[in-house]
Amino acid sequence: xxxxxxxxxxxxxxxxxxxxxxxxxxxxxxxxxxxxxxxxxxxxxxxxxxxxxxxxxxxxxxxxxxxxxxxxxxxxxxxxxxxxxxxxxxxxxxxxxxxxxxxxxxxxxxxxxxxxxxxxxxxxxxxxxxxxxxxxxxxxxxxxxxxxxxxxxxxxxxxxxxxxxxxxxxxxxxxxxxxxxxxxxxxxxxxxxxxxxxxxxxxxxxxxxxxxxxxxxxxxxxxxxxxxxxxxxxxxxxxxxxxxxxxxxxxxxxxxxxxxxxxxxxxxxxxxxxxxxxxxxxxxxxxxxxxxxxxxxxxxxxxxxxxxxxxxxxxxxxxxxxxxxxxxxxxxxxxxxxxxxxxxxxxxxxxxxxxxxxxxxxxxxxxxxxxxxxxxxxxxxxxxxxxxxxxxxxxxxxxxxxxxxxxxxxxxxxxxxxxxxxxxxxxxxxxxxxxxxxxxxxxxxxxxxxxxxxxxxxxxxxxxxxxxxxxxxxxxxxxxxxxxxxxxxxxxxxxxxxxxxxxxxxxxxxxxxxxxxxxxxxxxxxxxxxxxxxxxxxxxxxxxxxxxxxxxxxxxxxxxxxxxxxxxxxxxxxx
Length: 575
Prior knowledge:
Order of helices and strands: HHHHHHHHHHHHHHHHHHEEHEEHHHHEH
Strand order of the largest sheet: 1-2-5
Shape: rod-shaped
Mean pLDDT: 76
Low-confidence stretches: 1-65, 75-82, 404-408, 556-564, 569-575
Structural class: mainly alpha
Oligomer: single chain
Number of strands: 5
Largest sheet: 3 strands, mixed
Strand content: under 5%
Helix content: 55-70%
């Protein structure tokens, strides 16, 4: 809605006889300002409308208001055609003297008339004087005096209970601030006078029972507050957050209307800036609103509270008790804290309870599943244990029969190499380590990490265990470890034998000859057949010259070197 446009009441057809309405209007004293005298009083002998249609019963408050306003306008129309405005009382004349000096006695009498048509005519005349070229009525008046007289007149006319008169007064107010004052280049002091006289009345009308009156009042306040000349005064924000004077609790409609205006202006005017609202001013209104007895006031108060929190943040929390278990027993505070948490993107207390409940249910379900799984494992273990006990009883019987024959072999195990099977009376913990490192034909020291390993497991060692395993890559054809720098040439040569069905071929890492599976086959190959096994040749030479063997053993012991040896089973090697 633009600043100069306002809804106007549509014309009402007057079907009542002028004589009938005039005869049914009771006399009223001149100092009464309300419009009750304009309402025709119906009697049993005089019909309300001059037609044959039945009069509908008034079944609600709204229907009653519409019926009364219709009768008031019809009565005012009749009296406007027949009566001249009444003379002013001494009190009214004294009050209206600044208006009379500008607009004359006749216009003021129309404005103070008890007939709404006269008041509407007065507003239409003022509107013409400030929007069109002035007539002899105000042509000689000072523009500043016209502004002040118009403001005083609007203070009275904006309170009029007849919607048509109120709407005309709003039009005059908009035209005065948006057109006349800028056109005449009138100063801030006169603008401030207009706002001070008219804004409190509009704030009161923002809580009016009639919805259209309330909407027009709020829209007018909003447009006035955003005018450049008015915004520079810092008047509107201060006046909006000013406490409403009331003996008891503030009437809810009036309070809600004030909150609606603040909420609507909060974004354009902002907070804690020049010409804007202050945090304390708005929060004092919010505190009273959220504690009001009427639900609609509390709801608007909460909306304004959350809007303020989004703008200023934590300072809003200081106006309420700390967020703790004791405060949350109060449903109002609980709702406030939940709303603030939602504004922060945090889960509310209700959501936290639901989440905790869900987590507890999930935990209990997982615990039950775990217990069921453990019980199943326990049952399986019991079954395996029973089988083991049965097998143990059978094996003990067999072991007792072989005990005597195996005893001498167990005593000789300490004097025998577990890899090549060599037995030597000189073998002990130290000499066996030297044997593993220096002369065992089944073992080899890795040339990349110096670890002593079984020759049959050398290929797997280079791929998975060696400190330099990152330098090797498995050939997809022969499944052997190949240095990455030689990998491309190895593939291009295609000299390696392909394996069948992805299985690793048992091939000696020293002489590249095929070796049958099994520990005995590897032992036979490495001790007797492998021509590249240097340790085998060395062992054969030492067997031919025992003195040389003892000498080399003593030198190794003197060097105090302790090699580490890893052994794998045949299944692991052949895998």
